[in-house]
Automatic annotation (TrEMBL):
Organism expressing this protein natively: Paraburkholderia aspalathi
Assigned keywords, A-Z: DNA-binding, Transcription, Transcription regulation
Signal peptide: none
Highest classification ranks of the organism: Bacteria, Pseudomonadati, Pseudomonadota, Betaproteobacteria, Burkholderiales
Domain of life, source organism: Bacteria
Pfam families listed in its UniProt record: HTH_1, LysR_substrate
Annotated protein name in UniProt: DNA-binding transcriptional regulator, LysR family
InterPro entries cross-referenced by the UniProt entry: HTH-type_LysR_regulators, LysR_HTH_N, LysR_subst-bd, WH-like_DNA-bd_sf, WH_DNA-bd_sf
């Protein structure tokens, strides 16, 4: 019966990595600031605990064997994680509070995110922010790599995850102002017949959501231009290469194009809106999650929505709510 391996001692693992990096016990001792004897003892203890030989001792200098190479490949993430744990404990000790790891979809991080950071920076709370796509953020929350996630689709069936609705925004048609040529009676149906649809890629949740809505509307446009981000999408719209379907927050994220584009409403539909949610674990960070909800709605109501209304007067009143 194979015995259960002893958990790896991190100091011994650091010694092992140092020997591999430097090529000798002497070099490892100098690198870590300890005696050569201490390095030798750490390596011997590591091999004894794991029941494995980690070096080919017939080679000069000693090189890791198959087991040693496997350990070396895994050692970096283990040591990095241990250092991260130590740093977070130090942060908590210094501030009296654990830093919050907040993950947001890109359009939220680029628009509401700076205001959140500014508001939190005036308090004792420490915050770290990541951006990404909804599926990855949801997984990071599930794996405890994030404490709070702001995303546009809830895919977790974990009853320990609390889901708080944040806000909703409508999909709108986006077209170059110059494309309209003063035609005030033109609508989305006409555009769909005249121009190709410039899409978000299906890798993104917004791309998938828009594609469902497009099928619902009966728009049949070949897949010619697809982008992960709003900036290149709007650059083609502004260049009159086609029309797009996007959202107010995405437009505000790429607001340097607002002078060159116009928007049109689409028919009301349950498929025609994108919802944002705040997710956190039950019993964890509840007060801070409530603060984020309040701050987010304040930023939308007092800053982003009025600015969008001035820049895009044809934006529907309920486009962001």
């Amino acid at each position: 019966m194979r015995r259960t391996p002893t958990p790896i001692d991190l100091r011994a693992l650091q010694a092992f990595v140092a020997v591999c990096d430097s090529g000798s016990m002497t070099g490892a001792a100098k690198q870590l600031g300890v005696s050569q004897s201490a390095i030798s003892q750490s390596i011997a203890a590591l091999e004894r605990d794991q029941g494995l030989t980690l070096f080919d001792r017939e080679s000069r200098p000693p090189r890791p064997n198959v087991a040693g190479r496997a350990l070396l490949e895994l050692a970096g993430p283990l040591i990095e994680h241990a250092q991260m744990v130590s740093a977070r404990i130090g942060d908590a000790s210094h501030t009296g509070k654990m830093p919050v790891r907040l993950g947001c979809v890109d359009s939220f991080a680029a628009t509401v995110g700076p205001e959140l950071i500014r508001a939190v920076s005036n308090s004792e709370r420490q915050i770290s922010m990541w951006s990404g796509l909804t599926p990855g953020l949801s997984k990071q929350l599930h794996d405890r790599e994030l404490d709070i996630t702001i995303c546009t689709q809830t895919t977790l069936s974990d009853p320990r995850i609390v889901e708080v609705p944040l806000f909703s925004e409508a999909f709108v048609v986006v077209v170059a102002r110059s494309q309209l040529n003063g035609r005030r009676n033109i609508d989305w149906r006409t555009l769909a017949l005249e121009l190709p649809l410039i899409r978000y890629t299906a890798r993104s949740v917004i791309g998938q959501q828009i594609e469902r809505f497009v099928r619902h509307l009966g728009i049949n446009s070949p897949r010619r231009y697809e982008f992960d981000a709003t900036d290149p999408l709007l650059s083609l719209v502004a260049a009159r290469a086609g029309f797009a379907i996007s959202t107010p927050l995405c437009l505000w994220q790429a607001r340097h194009y607002l002078d060159d584009i116009a928007v049109m409403p689409l028919p009301p539909s349950r498929l025609g809106r994108r919802d944002f949610f705040l997710l956190h674990r039950q019993g964890e960070w509840e007060q801070f999650a409530g603060d984020i909800v309040m701050l987010t709605r304040g930023v939308l109501d007092n800053a982003i929505q009025p600015s969008l209304a001035r820049a895009l007067p044809d934006l529907p009143d309920d486009a962001l709510r």
